[in-house]
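User: Some background: our group keeps a shared notebook of sequences we're curious about, and every so often someone picks one and asks for a predicted structure to add to the entry. Today it's my turn. The entry only has the sequence so far, pasted here. Could you supply the structure so I can complete it?
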Amino acid sequence: MPDSSVPSTDMEPTADAVETPVSRRPGLLDDVVVRRLTLASLGLLVLWLGGIVSALIFGLITPPESPRTSVERALMVYEAEVAAGATDPRMWADYAAALVTAGQYAKAEQIITQGLKAASEGRSLIAVERARLAFERERFSEAIELADETIALAEAEVKAVKEGRVAAGQPAVEPDTPPSLGRAILIKAKAYREMDDLSAAIAQYDEYLDRWPTAANIYVERARLKAETGDLAGAEADYRFALTYVPDYPDAFEGLDAIGADRP
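Assistant: Of course. Here's the predicted structure to add to the notebook entry:
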């Protein structure tokens, strides 16, 4: 007879020894379709965030408060200089030019007026921007009048330098050929061109080349006008003058081809 005190290895486990499984409520992620859609959405979100970070790092996008173009950045710099009480006419002229380029004509006019009051010397550089503004607004007669005023102002500045009242090298003042003078002459030439007064436009280019005889691009511009008036010989001569100063000037070669002249 077996000893009842020795436990049998064949005995079934008692109820206390059996692990009772913990029951839980089914969730959305138990559904295979829902789980796949959720994972896909998370993946797309990660890719989108990664793209945003990369774009910010490499400059593909900028925060809304940051300037988006070089012109906008320049305008911010100029605005800071104005706030600091700038008197350099070159800064005021550059500021006005940037505003015109950006199409902010009303603001440009305001800055030109303000700059003419702030600058004591070299004011012709600012004045010429007023003529350019009128040209961009297609007020061609006004542009010519303002350019004439700029020329008179520039010549007065040159005279002041020669008489020793202003030292050469002071802001925007150069003996004989201040840059504002050349810009005003070219504005007049372009304005006359827009008004279909080709003879007057050519005369302005004549004046410019008298002062800056190596300006190859102006020879090309004058040649084009001469060709329009039927002066093919004069146009050919100007194209060849341009090639004298810039031997590989493509516009001059194309001009010679257009009037049927041989290339050098």
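Suggested note for the entry: Confidence is low (pLDDT under 50) at residues 1-20, 56-65. The two ends are 132 Å apart (CA to CA).
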